[in-house]
Amino acid sequence: MSSAQSPHGELVGALYRDHRAWLLAWLRRNIACAQRAEDLSQDTFVRLLGREQLSAPRQPRAFLAAIAKGLLFDHFRRAALEQAYLAELMLIPEAEQPSPEEQQLILADLQAIDHMLAKLSSKARSAFLLNRLEGLGHADIAERLGVSVPRVRQYLAQGIRQCYIALYGEPT
Length: 172
Prior knowledge:
Blueprint: H1 7-30, H2 34-49, H3 60-89, H4 100-117, H5 122-132, H6 138-145, H7 149-168
């Protein structure tokens, strides 16, 4: 049985048919690019199709908007990351800049790291970045974040675990 014929597929189809125009209008109000709004609208329904379980939401528009907001947030975060990367590239002499292909690979790696770090709490993410990028020790991080040193150790362990998962998958 294809997903389009399953109850799950029928529910997504009904949500699409009944609320797609509203969702697209909502996205267009929140993002300047009509094409990006169209893509995010489609991505919202693709995300629903990818779910293992789905029950009919009580408030379909609020449900769809919540999914679209997450996708919109991811879009803006990726765009900000790309802009920061491009700004840093401009500081490198042209002769030393990576090739366009290398730039795309680096950007993809940065996005993968960002995705991995997004799974951490804001304090765990900050602790991990302060330690790994700025070289701060546990006590300095604890003072900056207003937490205990043992808590910083927990945050760093969470960050290292996410790195492990990104490289090797979930531990068995």
